[in-house]
Amino acid sequence: MFAPSVGWFQAPAALDDITAPITVHVGAADIITPPATAEILRTSPAVTSITVHPNVGHYDFMSVLPPMMKPTPGLDHQTSLDKLAASTVQALR
Questions:
Q1: Where are the alpha helices (DSSP H) in 27-93?
Q2: Residue 1 belongs to a domain
Q3: Residue 63, by phi and psi: left (phi above 0), alpha (psi -120 to 50) or beta?
Q4: Quick check: is 79 in a domain?
Q5: Distance CA 66, CA 85 (A)
Q6: What is the Cα Rg of the chain in Å?
Q7: How far is CA 87 from CA 10, 12, 32, 67, in A?
Q8: Average pLDDT of the segment spanning 20-46
Q9: Once rounded to an integer, what is the mean pLDDT over residues 76-81?
Q10: Are 86 and 62 in contact (CB under 8 A)?
C-alpha cells in the first residue's frame, strides 16, 4: 500500500482475517495520512512492514500528480519513484 487511507481499517475486527504480509509505504511529509496513522495496520495478525520515506508527501507516490499539485519541495520526484519501484519489486520477490 502506498499512503494508505487507514480509516478503513479502524472498525473492530477489520484486520482480523488478514494473513498475507502487509508492506506499507508512507511519506514523512504526508499531512493527509501522516505516517503514524499506518501503525493501526500492525494490529493485524499478518507480518507488517512500514517504510517511512523522508521528505515525501501524500501525492508524491503518484507518477503523474493531480492537476495543480507539485512534488514536495526539495524532493527529486523521479528518483523517489525509482527507489519506490525498486523497493516494491524487492518486496514482491
A1: 77-92
A2: no
A3: alpha
A4: yes
A5: 20
A6: 14
A7: 27, 31, 23, 27
A8: 90
A9: 95
A10: no
In a domain, 43, yes or no: yes
Q: What is the reported pTM?
A: 0.82
Joined together, the cell numbers standing for residue 8 give: 478503513
Which range of residues forms the domain containing residue 35?
6-92
DSSP 45: S
Nearest Cα neighbor of 55 from 79, 38, 77, 72 is 72
- Note whether residue 85 is domain-resident: yes
DSSP 77: H
Alpha helix stretches (DSSP H) within 1-93: 77-92
- Written as one letter, the residue type at 53 is H
Q: Please report, as a single letter, which amino acid is at residue 81.
A: L
Residue 86 pLDDT > 80: yes
How many angstroms separate the Cα of 14 from the Cα of each of 41, 43, 51? 10, 10, 22
Q: Taking a C-beta distance cutoff of 8 angstroms, is the pair 33, 5 a contact?
A: yes
Q: Please tell me the total count of domains within the chain.
A: 1
